Amino acid sequence: MANAPAVVVGRPDGSGLRKVTVDGKLVGQACSAGDLQKILRHAGVAFEGIQWIGGDCTVWPGCNWRRRTVGILMAAGLLATAWELVLIGRVDSFHALTYAGRITGMIFLGAAVAVIAAAAATFDYWRKRRKGYSGMVVFIGVLIALMVNVLLLLMHMSSRGYTPYLRIRVVLVAWCIWALWILFRSRPWKGIRYPVRIVAGAVVPVLLAVANMAYTLIYLPSVTYPLVQASAQLGTASWDGRRNKMVMTVRLHVVNSGQIPVYVLGSIYWINGMTPVNAGPGQPQATFRLIDSGEFIQPPGMSLSPGQEFSEDEYVEIPQPDRFKSVEAKVELYMVRKDKTTINPSYELSKAGRGTLKKLGKSEDPPGPPAYYFRYQADLSNSNELLNETRGRPRVTLWWVYQDKYPYLAVAVTAPGEKPPFHVEKLVASDKANERYGLEKVKGSMTQKTYAQLLKEAEDKSPAGGAEPKPTDSGRSG
Q1: What is the pLDDT of residue 306?
Q2: What's the CA gap between 89 and 103, in Å, rounded?
Q3: Cβ neighbour number for residue 400 with a 10 Å cutoff
Q4: How far is CA 18 from CA 61, 70, 370, 380, in A?
Q5: How crowded is residue 29: how many other Cβ atoms within 10 Å of its Cβ?
Q6: HSE-CB of 444 using CA atoms within 13 angstroms
Q7: How confident is the model at residue 478, as a pLDDT?
Q8: How far apart are alpha carbons 21 and 228 in whole angstroms?
Q9: Angstrom distance (rounded) from CA 235 to CA 230
Q10: Global confidence as pTM
Q11: Distance set, CA 287 to CA 26, 129, 221 (Å)
Q12: Cis peptide leading into 366, omega within 30 of 0?
């Protein structure tokens, strides 16, 4: 027995584990008598002649349900954080619309790897603690989880929107605070040289990168703006002798002259006739009458890349043109930036009138105008998955409103669950939508021709000595 190795079982540490040494060499940490037997058997030492420090063979505070529960909760919280990091990172790394968004996705994937490693380390730190650095890995993983969840929660609050992930953020932030409290009590950095440098080297770069990317994606204003130009050009007039009507073609033209690609949500053109009236001093000298109107960009939701053009010719009939002093054409359209959002392909197929919606039993979401209309509607995706999870996917609705005197377009971009009352001015002047998605109204240049010009064109185009009927001179106005 004189040559028997000296076996010493130390006092329980903060987690209830007892260090086991053989001849002064650490061979393991035990949490129960059975665990101690396994350690000694592996070391080739008999289970006898043991020196007990801080309690005999009946003192095993680490062998209880509380310690195992803490370890399970630690791993669960870390894995939940890693899951949300992977969800965001795998999408943004390849599909974000901006370079900054893709870099953010890669950072999130890197942070997910670190958090998964921390989750794996919990199985050692809350059991045998055979790896001296496992506690430090868990500590760094929890710090990364705290930064990420606090950042996402702040983004939720700043966007003032609701998504199903909001409750998860709140729960995970509370979990991070609890996990840090547990770790500070157990002091996992014991026995590690330069723990502050290790934490700073692992956490600070991630914090700075994520904070900078969040600022760039959300708060930094765009320095480049889209430039889309639209115009309507009246063609040469001619007479339709059989119906005694003046006819002409109108060239409707749109070009993206800027550097930003856009989606055209909807378009409208108007052909108006100016009718002379007998007015007194200080009163308008003419009034406009709608001749024709319609949408001209098909399909709605089409994209226009920088330098791309779109043209459409509309055939217009002007009944009794001698009643008009002049004829004018103008266009208008709505667009959103393609570098800030992606529109669901179902938009172009979503055309439905008010009567159709009622027949199908669908509610107006959001509420539409009181007049008759047809609408296009679809969900928008933000420029990256990070914004989709914190802001939600908004819905864009464009109404093409029929009105006897003057049809018009109206657009609304609404957050999930939001149903604002219909109001044309407020819908158009949505600063939040303008800033986030580049929603903008484009008013095209207007062209106008007097009745005298139209009549001369029609006469010049008619065959010499033609018998096509002409309006009476009494209806002409120069």
Answers
A1: 92
A2: 9
A3: 21
A4: 9, 18, 77, 58
A5: 23
A6: 25
A7: 29
A8: 78
A9: 16
A10: 0.71
A11: 99, 88, 43
A12: yes
| Side chain identity, residue 192 | I
pLDDT tens across 41-59, in order?
Answer: 888 888 777 888 877 777 7
Three-state DSSP state, 323: helix
CB burial of residue 50 (10 Å; 0-12, 13-18, 19+): middle
Q: Please report which residue ranges of 217-323 form alpha helices under DSSP H.
A: none
Q: Which fold has domain 229-339+441-478?
A: Immunoglobulin-like (2.60.40)
Close Cβ partners of 62 (under 8 Å, ≥ 6 residues apart): 12, 15, 16, 17, 18, 31, 32
Give the relative orientation of helices 165-186 and 65-95 as an angle to the nearest 10 degrees.
130
As a whole number of Å, the CA-based R_g of the chain is: 37
Neighbours of 404 (CB within 10 A): 7
Q: Record the tokens describing residue 21, joined without a space.
A: 């040494």
Q: Which structure tokens are listed for 49?
A: 């002649």
Domain definitions of the chain by residue range: 7-52, 65-219, 229-339+441-478, 341-437
Pairwise CA distance, residues 378 & 361, whole Å: 18
**Type and span of the H or E element at 69:** helix 65-95
pLDDT at 474: 35
Identify the three-state secondary structure at position 174. Answer: helix
Half-sphere exposure of 233 (CA within 13 A, CB side): 9
Q: For 59, which DSSP code?
A: -
SS3 category, 277 = coil
Give every residue of the chain whose pLDDT is below 70, as ranges: 1-3, 14-15, 62-65, 128-129, 159-164, 191, 209-210, 212-223, 241-243, 276-286, 361, 363, 404, 417, 420-421, 423-433, 462-478
The CA distance from 188 to 347, in Å, is: 55
Q: In angstroms, how far apart are the furthest CA atoms of the chain?
A: 138
Q: Are 272 and 283 in contact (CB under 8 A)?
A: no
* Contact of 380 with 436, CB cutoff 8 Å: no
The helix (H) or strand (E) run that includes residue 140 is helix 134-159
Q: Give the position of tokens 């795998």.
A: 90
In angstroms, rounded to a whole number, what is the distance separating the alpha carbons of residues 165 and 389? 7
pLDDT on residue 309: 93
